[in-house]
Amino acid sequence: TPDTRQPTLLLGQTLSFTANPFEVPFEDAVSHETVGAVLIRDGQIAAVGQAETLRALNPTAKVIDYGKGLIMAGFVDAHVHYPQTAMIASWGKRLIDWLNSYTFPEEMRFASKTYAADIAGRYLDLTKAHGTTTVASYCTIHPVSVDALFEEAQKRGQRVVAGKTCMDRNAPEGLMDTAQTAYDQSKQLLQAWHGVDRISYAITPRFSPTSTPEQLDAMGALWAEHPDCLMQTHLSEQTDEIDWVLGMFPDARDYLDTYEKFGLLGERGLYGHAIHLTDRERARLKETGAGLVHCPTSNTFIGSGLFDMQGLMAEGHNVGLATDTGGGSSFSMLRTMAAAYEVGQLRHNPLHASQLLWLATQGSARSLHLDDKIGNLAAGMEADLVVLDLASTDAISQRSSRAEDLWESIFPTIMMGDDRAIRAVWINGKAA
Ligand code: GUN
Ligand code: ZN
């Protein structure tokens, strides 16, 4: 078919990953052009290279010059709760009390489609302003909360993963379904939305304490019928939570076993937090290739613990990075990378800037099994991009102006940057 749309050529510094900087030295993991260009055509990245070369090859392209701006893949946030947007930064509680005091009352409001649509739009605006182009979100038990997010994502041409959060115990009246309705409603939503435009459905049992064995079993059955879907849940976030789970499932060998028993452990499984893991859990997660999602601002905000990034990466786990809004205290993946760095320092294992940027793009995309479509600046990928201003505030620019290499020029923005560092966002090949 003939190419009818005029291509766009973005000029700036470009940063692409050619390998995993946890596996090879960082200088071998990236490709960087100081005067680079990205050619966008029909919603896809058609080429990445030197500005001069791509200009010569594409004389009719519309040119947008971002100067020293750093063009890279848009951020991928692998674990969020969009319904918690309006109660982010709620004070002073640990997980179970935080859920009961702040989270569940807010999630009750999503019985209203109007309210859900308002928050979904607000959430996607906020995350876009922070450079995030894809999220994997929990919704609430209400099917309309799923429709609301997918409809907003569809309007924006945005790639989004989400699912109805299922809970049939230990939650307030009005915020519970049953094993049967969770199955039926999830199935209906999955059939209506999975694979429509850029939407993927994720089967979403919230976590073992809020699902009966019957509900976990029903979710496992649904996943077995739709193995191409992702399944997202929470695992081993706080020690009190683990004790509670083991008391509730006396036959389980460990927390992971409460999922494994019901067919909820698999390569397309995404396990948020995964902090306090036993050796058996680590081995089984590794064996299955399941995705672990590090949520560092949440883990410090709710007081959960320190994720073992370097240990898990060394074992070859599949790890993504996420804000966990609103247990997380920020919508920003820059702030989230900074928190991941700080947690690394507390474990005497600092992450390199290349590793942080990889986690926020490639790592998360890989955990979502979307790394063939998003998460890198490379020909053939969907054109979801962020352009970073590496001198967005006085504090950052006075430091980055002294930088002696690329990483020193980027690290101040990772540590101190916010939405002012986001110069532009492109979603599906369009300026967003
Ligand atoms: N565990 C179960 N539900 C939640 C949630 O909404 N946020 C966090 N951080 N942990 C959870
Ligand atoms: Zn969560």
TrEMBL record:
Gene3D superfamilies named among the record's database cross-references: Metal-dependent hydrolases, Urease, subunit C, domain 1
Name of this protein: Guanine deaminase
InterPro entries: Amidohydro-rel, Guanine_deaminase, Metal-dep_hydrolase_composite, Metal_Hydrolase, Metallo-dep_hydrolases, MQNX/HUTI_composite_N
Classification via PANTHER family: GUANINE DEAMINASE
Pfam families named in the record: Amidohydro_1, HUTI_composite_bact
Chemical reaction(s) catalysed: guanine + H2O + H(+) = xanthine + NH4(+)
Functional description taken from the UniProt entry: Catalyzes the hydrolytic deamination of guanine, producing xanthine and ammonia.
